[in-house]
Structures are given as C-alpha cells and as structure tokens.
Specification:
The complex is a heterotetramer, with 2 copies of chain A (167 residues) and 2 copies of chain B (501 residues). Chain A contains 1 helix and 16 strands. Chain A has 167 residues and is mostly beta strands. Chain A has an 8-stranded antiparallel β-barrel. The two termini of chain B are 48 Å apart. Classes of the chains: A mainly beta (167), B alpha+beta (501).
Chain lengths: 167, 501, 501, 167
C-alpha cells in the first residue's frame, strides 16, 4: 500500500512495507522506519521509533485531511490519492470559477454590508462575523459584483461555510 | 452568614468561585444559557437555573433574570465573577434593593472607578500619580491645546473605554484630528458614548497591578503586585508575580499607593489597582478593576491566601484577619491563559468541540479550567479555556515548570494557544525578565516561526496519519460494504418491531 | 552532570520523577513490560525500552534487563522510584560497577537498614531509641525468656519482613509458641528466611516519619514529619503534615534523632526514618526507608522543596544548598491515596479499564496520577491510581479542600477508594486529629455505612439508568435489525473489493 | 414504557410518562419527577430536577445491569424484564445445580490446591488468585467433590469467570 502525502509544502511518497500488530515497517521518501504504532486513545497515537517516544494527536477534518499535533508543531496533512490529484489539477485550471467569501471560524453573522447586485471595490468590507467577543470583517480583494448572499444577520455559521458568492 | 451563593457567571471562574464556596460549606447556585446546559459549572453546582438564550445580552447580562433566579433559589448572595455584570453599578444597587448581598464593592466604588475621567480626578485628589493628560475634551481645538501642553506622543482614549476600543496612538501632529475623530466614532459605536480624553503615551510601558483587600471597617491591605505586560490586542496572556522589574522600595511605595487609591473610594472587597510603569520605574495609576481578576491565582499562590474566601468573609461583614505585616511573597508564580484561538492566524477565535484533552499534573501546578472531552466551547463567550498556574522557589524554576506543564497539556478539536505560550517561555526577553507590553509584537518572529524545518518530526506525523488512514479505510470499506448490502436488501427481510417511547 | 536518567519504574512515580527531570533539562528513559506499552510513563518519556513480560519478576525486577536498557540508551543515571529495585543493595552495587549513577543511597546503607535486626542494632549503638525487644531469636525457649523480660503484649516479627507479612501479635502466654511458629512459616514462605525477633507491642501506635536529605559530604537535614497512621492492612491510606499529635519540642527532638539515625549509616540522598509513637509521645525508631516515599509530596508542599531534584543534585555530587535553619513548615498538607480497590469488599483489588475520569482541579490541589480514559490498569502491579494532595493554611481548611477535591474526582470502570476517603475526611476522630493506626478498624462502622437510606438519590440513579436503557434499547434494536439484514443477504449481493495490507 | 428496576433491595416500578428532547416526565413508584436529563459524556449524565443538579455516572455490566456512581453512593441497578423474571424464578427453584468457584476480581492463578475427584472439606482452600500484589484464597463452604478445573496455574482470568466446578 502506498500513497503520496502532503505536509508542509512537501509531497512525500509513503509505503507500508510490512505490518504485524503494532509493528509497522514503513518507507517515507525512501527512508525506512521501524515503528511501534499504537492508538492509545481515540485519535491519539503513541509511536516508538528507535526507542524514541512520540505522541501524535490527530483530528480528521475529512477522509483525507488531518490536523496533526506533535509536541513542537502542528501540521495540516493530506493524503493524496487519484481522486484528489484530479481535483487539484481541475482547481488549478479553472481560475475563473466563482469566488466565495467564508470565515475560517464558526460564529454569528453580525452585519451584511452589501446586497445582491452591488458592485464592490477592492478592500470593501462585505460581511462581519463575530465569535467569542471578537468581530472579523471579510473584504473583497478585487472589484467584484455580489452574486448571492447565503446567510442573514443573526445566523450561526460553521467554519468555512459559504457566506457570500461574488463574481 | 451567607449560606447560599448564586454565581452570575460561567466557565472557569464560575467553577473557581464554587470550589471555595464548597470548602466553606456554602450551597452553590449556577445560572445557564441555552448553550451552557452541558457546561461544567451547571454540573458542578448544587442547583442550576436556566436564564435564557445563548447571547449574553439575553441571559448573563440580564439583571432581572439573575435576580429572579436568586429569589427562586433563595440565595442570600451573588458572586459576579469577572466580566458580565461584575462591574455594573446598577446590578450592585439592584442586589442591595432586593436584600441580596452583592459579593463586591459598593455601587459608588464601581461607578467612580468605572468612569475613567472621574476615576482619574479622584486619584489626583487623593495624591495618586496619574499619567499626565487632559480632562474631558470639549472639541478639537481644546484637544490640540491640551496635546501641545502634554507633548507628543499621546494616547486618545474613550472615557467609557475598555479592551483597547476607542483608543488611538498619536505620534505626529498631522494625525491629531483624524485620530480624535476615529476614536470618537469607535467609542460611540462600542459604548454609545463618544466622550474622550488625552493621555501622555508611555513608550515602553509595563502593566503592573496590585491586589488589594478591604473590609467594611476601613481596613485595607495589598497583596503585592502582578506583572501583566505580556499582552496581545490589549488582552493579557501571561502574568507573573513577583514582577522581574520591581525593587523592594518601589514595591513598598506602589503598594501603599494602591491602598491609598482604594481607600479614596471607600473600597471593600477584592480589587486591583492597575499601574503603568516606565523603564525608569515611574509609575502612574491606570485604572481600578472593582472585581476579581482572571489572574488572581498567582497572588493566591505566593501569598497563600484564598481570595474568594476573603471576598465572602468581607461580604459577610467580617473584619479582615490578614494584617499587612503578615503578608509576604513566597517563591514565584506564573499564569498562562489557554485560549481557544489560533495564534498562527492572528489569534482568531477557535470555538468547537473538545475531542481530546490531557491535563497537566504534578508538583507546583494549579489548573483552573472547565472544559471536558465532548464539550462544545460556545461561540458566544470568552475564548478562555483554562488557566495554568505554576509555582516554584525561583523564577527560573517556575519557567522550567511552566514549560513542563505546557508539554503535558494537550487539547485537540479546537486550536489553542498552548504551543504559542510554550514559545513565550523560551523567548530570551521573557527568560531574562526584560519585557514590556510590546513584547509579543517585538518578538513576533521568534514566537511565530520557532522551529527549524524538521523532517524527522514530519515523518513521525506522516506515520501516524498513514496508519490511521489505512485502518479507517479498512473499517470504512467494511461499512460501505454493509451499507450496500442494506440498501439492496431493503424489501426482502423482516423488520424487528420496537417501540419508541 | 547527569544528562539522561533511566527511570526503573512505572505508574505515577515514574511520571513524577520524569517531571522533575524535564524541568532540569534531563532526558528521560522509560522501561516497560508487555502490559505497559500504552502506559503513560512510556508516552511521557523521551525514550522507552521494552524489558519483557508483565510479571514484575520477569521485567521491572530483572537487574540485567534494566542495566541493559540503561547501557543501550546511554543513560548516565538510574532513578529507582519506590518499590521494585529501589531498596535492592545488589542493584545499587551493580549500577556502580557499570559506571551508572544510582540515584539513591549506598548499597551499604540499603543493606544495613534493609535487615531489621542489623538496623535495630545500628540504631541502638547510635543512641536512637528503639522499641524494647530482642535480637535474633535462636529457639522457642529463647523466645519465651525474652518475652518474659519484655512483658506481654509483644509482636513477633520477621527480620526480612515488610508489608505486615511474618508478623504476629501475642497477647496471652498460651499463644506464644503457636504465634512464633506461624510467623516463622509465613516468613519462610514470603522471604525465604525465617529469622524472627520480638518487640514490645505499642498499644495505640502512631506512625510518624521524618523526611531526611543528606549529601555526600556529611551534610544532613530533616524536612519535618509526616503523620501516616491511617492505614489498612499495614498500607498507608491518608498522610498529613504537620502531625496533629506533635509538639514543637518533640518535633525538634525527633528531627534531630532522625538526622542522627541517617548519619549512623553515612546516608546520602533522600530517605525516611519511621517512628512508632505512643499516646504519651514516647517515640521509637521503627525502620528506615532508603528511597523516596509514596507520600513525599506533602513534605514538598509544606516546605517548598522538590525532593526529586534534591535527589538528583545529591547524586550529581553537589553539596546540599538547604540548611536546617532555612527549612520551615508552612501551612498544612494532606495526601489521599486513590487505589483501584473495593473498600466495601475488604479492599479487594479492582484492575480494569478506565471508562471515564474527571480530575480535580483548582486552588491548593496537586494531583499525581498516570491513568487516562481507555487505559487498562494491569493486574500485575500496585493498585495505586493516583495521589491527591491538598494544601491549605490550616488543617481544618485542608480537610475542607480535600473533601472538595474528592467531590470533583470521578472515575468509572474500576472501583476506587474515592468515596471511602471522603468518609475518612468526615470521621470525627480524623477531624479532631485524634487517631492512631487502629483508626480504620475503630471507625469501620462509620466508614462503611455512612449514609442513611436516601430514596431521593436512588430515584435519580433510576432515572439515569432508565433513560440510558431505553436509548440503548432503541439503538440496539436498530442494530439487530441491520445485522439480520446482513445475515440473510449473505449470498445475493456484490462485495466491495479492498486490499488489506 | 415501564419496567421494574431493582436497586438496593428495592423493586421500583418505573414509567416514562412523556419525553421531549432532554425533558423527561417519569414516575417512580407513583412519585412523579420532571427531569432534564442529558448525557454529557459517554456514560455520564447531568440531571436537573427541581433545579437541583445531579451527576450520575453509569457503567453497564451487561444489557440490564448497571453500576451507578452518585456523589455519595454507588449502586448496582438491574432492569427487570420478563426474561430476567423467568431466570430468577428458575434460579431459586433449582437449588441443586452445580456450584462454581470464581473470583470477583480479575487476576492470575497462583496455585490450585485440588485435582479433579478430590473430596474437600468445608473451609478448605481450593484455589489462590493474585492481583495487584494481593492474594485471595477461595474456599468451599461445605464438604464437596471437585468436578472440573477450568484453569491452570499462570492463567490470567477475568472477573467472575468459572474457575473450579464442584458438586
């Protein structure tokens, strides 16, 4: 079993060479590791490699994307398979697709400063989202036209949910 | 004597207050909004009353609802915690009218200290040093004249201000008018009041505050200082005591000054006098917080006093048992505030469900939190998850202990400031104790990009992810398999009968 | 200077030692048996070495395996914790031969204090009071003569004894011979050595121990006492300091006596002199523990010293920085040992999987544990889950705080002593500080059947159970339903193809 | 929906009268409760009744048996349905059924002092189990004959697993 895995702008080729219980022999970009890998709690792995003890905590954001906490650092890690490769190439080709304004944090819609059809200038604030006593303003980067507004004031939104569609 | 206390708050501070109540044999009453039904303060309290929808303006800030819950429960006192109604003079008055003890100072003290210009005037009258500045600014001409008098740079501040809102730094003459207008408009939007004033800007300011305790008979003591200069967006991140800046002489002077300041408003209860201190140890009264502070535990640790119990005793009308000469600082304490936020993304709040938590344990560690696995941190309130407090004999050992505690503290599900705090503990300026309120800005490069590129730890992360992915893939495929079976089979089997009730 | 320490232990003590190492910048090496792969000490350490099957005789007690792991890892020192090899003179010798620092006393001190008769003789020579008694008993006639001399009641004890094994209380003359035989046979079975001796039986004995610290240059101090009289089956359950029994005069005397006792074996490192004390404050040397004690944290808290760091400094050949006159007791500390056991069923061990845990937090609470949700407490080792330590200014406040902490501490999956400990905190004899080693026996009725029959709380339990039952029934029926579908469908659908790797 | 529930030698008749979300109206031996019941963590319930806050922790031992921890007390609670009633009556009738020696704690078999066919006297020790440094001896209460030994020395056993069958 092998895959490409993306971490920190690096695409690593990963292959499981053998596995017996929690002992895994794995190759990463040609470097071989003998790892003792145990999930000790839901999403928490204890890994011993050359007797070094590592604790890795995973949060899956979807089937192929993980947020990984190590002691010193956090990483976003993505498993690349045929499907995601196709999606990626498609995304790059299609530079004219409609843009969507969204918020990386969940929160509440405080204010919507535009209506459908408005022509907005680069830097104009479109929508204000509030969470945990902090308000964040979302602006357009270029001159645009407001195509669709998918939320209303007072709505509770999820992270990365489309809020306003522009074109 | 107080027998039942309603805690008009939530989160870690509600729990912290309830703990002391429990030790005193006092029954605790929680109040909770819609999104707090499963919150730990509801689970920990003896009783709990629902007070409305999640937005605090419709629940925790509704005086009538809080009073109603207090009446229903038969609570004889209300502890406001910090934030929410804790510095609301109307609430303190209302409690008094209802015959409920407000565990805090008089509404007079709240009101006087709550308005910055009145507070400033009161302090000047009491002989407390304040930052050179103006009274209320009547118009732009007045402002220009005052600024000429004080000398640039200056800060333009909102009289009703707080949390950095309605504040503008003015360095150049040409920016004066625009800054004043911006401050006024921001103040109007945030507080409904555009009154502003002007203060001399202190270039490398340290925020140092003194804890005070006063009873109803005029006895007043201070419990030494807390150094609170590590801030981001005017919000404290790390606090320590003693302050590495302090000398015994200045400490004594400032302590006496803090006591005098509190006496000037006949203060009773626990309060904090905040000072701004420059590099030459000139200190100026900044403001008074007429409530318990978030960072009170570091004081509790080095002086060995439970401040909440003191608050309750004072509210009970007891005389202060502590004398100034009995209070001393023993060892060193540091607090780190763990926020649900993303330090790598401009400290953006990160509410969500706690997937997994490992709490730090062991010698010299105090942990005041409220979240648990499966709990959803609501979007409506403060992002504070917990406070990690360590104590050690020396500052150096306390820093080592804090790093050790942060190492063991793990939370997944939401982004937190844990690793950012760890980096603060390693920043040379912090380690040397040479920092002011510009610390985070000044050290942003060290704080944000601390580690060299480490292939090894990346590879370990990859191994964990890949093993997890493959194991899940296996499970998933088995599941899909069984789902397909189900789908196809839909119409050809018997169904178990069961009653939903 | 020590840079890497192998911790030849597991459970809470391994973690406790690692925490101090981490604060000192020392790399930590764990060793683990088969059932400890997922144990927290393996997860917390920097490195971890597998040392064999679960029974400790095949892993944690195998000197060769520990030494081998130390060599492989390049550890320059070994910390033995308590139990296992911590009081094994051969192990200390072997470390020395291998050029690995043993963080503990010399093998001479271990050997001398490890044999009770030699220890007794050494103490008598050093002028330390011991319980009136015999040397080695040669035969039954000798025993009868010695007992006549000492006077009944007496204790018959195994020289190699410990943990209450090979001990017999003799009240009546007619029981002497049978008791001696029983003690001998038990000692032979347990220790392979049936040497016995006889001691005067102290009727209401208090176990009070003194913590000592000595460096390699003859500097020796004590860090005051720990009261350890709350015991079940000769195992400590609750400890506190200061002892409610102590007077300043006796404390000073016993402290000096403890220092003299340790000096008599050229002791270096951390150790404990255990005394037996009667109601009239006559005290007698009982034994010396030549290692860190389980209950060391209460001393750390009231004197403000990290004992593990002291051990490491001493092992590094540093001179003691602490002077006797600098050490003082500040406030009061209590430790409760949380065991995986069933107090209502003769304290039967209760190993198993931790389903859920809520740890106590807040002011004045220290928690030293090692288990986590999903961890299986193995059947092979000690049932200690964690140690809950509280500090407060007064004993009364410390008891209130302990009750508060125990209230918040919840574990399901295994039976624990938490509620039993809570009842101890409420027992009038304990509250008054009037207790000796018969405490649990004497108060068994209060401890075991504390609550009157409360229909209300039963009804709440029923509500939780019934709602859970109904919700699970619903889910279960849906599951059964889908399983039946699967079974019947077996041969008529397509299967997803997937690779197992 | 109603059941009998056994707790502390008491058989309570329990009936859910209505339920809406976490608000449950329930009758126990005729006494009516309005309870706000939420499972806050796996097996952990927060229950508000008349504004009193209760925390109840459950461990299921099987489908119908629970260990319940409340603040002050632990209970064993059993749901009685038709099946368990039948089993109970059967158990009482059948007093001559073969007896089994087992240990309420998991552990390791240290010593077996009998062999099949041995006649043992009341009070004789049959088997010794060790867990967590403590040994427990299991004895026969009456004169018996050893019928079957289901374990051997060194075996790791579960709680309540049959060890020795006597008749």
């Amino acid at each position: 079993m092998s895959n490409e895995i993306n971490i920190n702008d690096r695409n690593a080729l990963v292959e499981v060479l053998s596995r017996e219980g929690n002992k895994v022999r794995i190759s990463i970009d040609g470097k071989k590791y003998d790892a003792d890998v145990v999930m000790v709690e839901e999403g928490v792995y204890s890994i011993l490699i050359d007797n070094k003890s590592h604790n890795i905590e995973l949060t899956r954001t979807d089937n192929k994307n993980y947020m990984v906490n190590t002691y010193s650092k956090s990483f976003d890690v993505e498993i690349i398979d045929a499907e995601s490769k196709y999606m990626k190439s498609r995304r790059q080709d299609d530079s004219h697709e409609e843009a969507v304004i969204s918020s990386p944090m969940p929160g509440k819609i405080v204010k919507i400063l535009v209506k459908v059809g408005d022509e907005v200038k680069a830097g104009d604030t479109v929508i204000i989202v509030s969470a945990m006593k902090m308000e964040s303003e979302y602006k357009v980067k270029k001159d645009r036209v407001i195509k669709e507004i998918k939320v209303k004031v007072g709505d509770i939104i999820q992270a990365n949910q489309p809020l306003v569609v522009i074109e | 004597m107080i027998k039942k206390v309603l805690i008009a708050n939530r989160g870690e501070i509600a729990l912290r207050v309830m703990r002391s109540c429990r030790e005193m044999g006092i029954t605790t009453v929680a109040v909770f909004s819609e999104s707090d039904r499963t919150s730990m303060h509801v689970r920990y309290a003896d009783e709990a009353y629902f007070i409305g929808p999640s937005p605090s303006a419709e629940s925790y800030l509704m005086i009538a609802k809080i009073i109603n819950a207090a009446r229903q429960s038969g609570a004889d006192a209300i502890h406001p915690g910090y934030g929410f109604l804790s510095e609301n003079a109307e609430f303190a008055d209302r409690c008094q009218k209802e015959g409920i003890i407000f565990i805090g100072p008089s509404s007079y003290a709240i009101k006087t200290m709550g308005d910055k210009i009145t507070a400033r005037k009161t302090m000047v009258d009491a002989g407390i040093p304040v930052v050179p500045g103006s009274g209320v600014i009547s118009d732009e001409k007045d402002a220009l004249a005052k600024i000429k008098e004080i000398g640039l740079p200056v800060m333009v501040k909102a009289s009703a201000g707080g949390g950095g809102k309605g504040m503008r730094l003015v360095n150049k003459e040409k920016d004066i008018v625009s800054s004043i207008r911006a401050a006024q408009s921001e103040a109007r939007a945030a507080f409904g009041d555009d009154t502003i004033y002007i203060e001399k800007y202190i270039k490398s300011p340290h925020h140092i505050e003194f804890q005070i305790l006063g009873d109803k008979y005029g006895n007043m003591i201070h419990l030494f200082e807390r150094e609170c200069s590590v801030q981001r967006r005017h919000q404290k991140v790390v606090e320590e005591t003693p302050s590495p800046l302090m000398t015994p002489e200045i400490r004594k002077e400032m302590g006496e000054c803090a006591v005098a300041a509190a006496k000037a408003v006949d203060y009773s209860g626990a309060g904090t006098i905040e000072f701004i201190v420059d590099d030459n140890l000139n200190y100026y009264f900044l403001e008074m917080n007429t409530r318990l502070q978030v960072e009170h535990p570091i004081t509790e640790r080095v002086v060995g006093v439970d401040l909440v119990k003191q608050q309750i005793n004072i509210a009970n009308g007891l005389e202060l048992e502590l004398k100034q000469e009995d209070i001393c600082q023993y060892g060193h304490a540091i607090e780190c505030r763990i926020y649900a936020e993303d330090p790598e993304n401009n400290f953006m709040p990160s509410p969500g469900v706690i997937k997994h938590i490992t709490e730090p344990l062991g010698l010299g560690v105090r942990h005041d939190g409220y979240v648990y696995e499966g709990f959803e941190i609501p979007i409506h309130y403060d992002p504070l998850i917990s406070k990690l407090v360590v104590w050690a004999k020396t500052r150096e050992e306390a820093i080592a202990r804090m790093k050790r505690a942060l190492y063991a503290y793990k939370i997944t599900g939401v982004k937190t400031s844990i690793s950012f705090l760890n980096r603060i503990m390693q920043t040379p300026d912090f380690v040397k104790g040479k920092y002011n309120t510009h610390f985070i800005e000044k050290n942003s490069e060290f704080l944000m990009f601390p580690d060299k590129h480490e292939t090894k730890i990346e590879d370990v992360a990859i191994i964990a992810v890949y093993v997890d992915y493959l194991d899940r893939l296996n499970n998933l495929q088995m599941e899909v398999h069984s789902k397909n079976e189900k789908k196809n089979w839909k119409n050809c089997g018997r169904r178990l009968n069961f009653n939903r009730f």
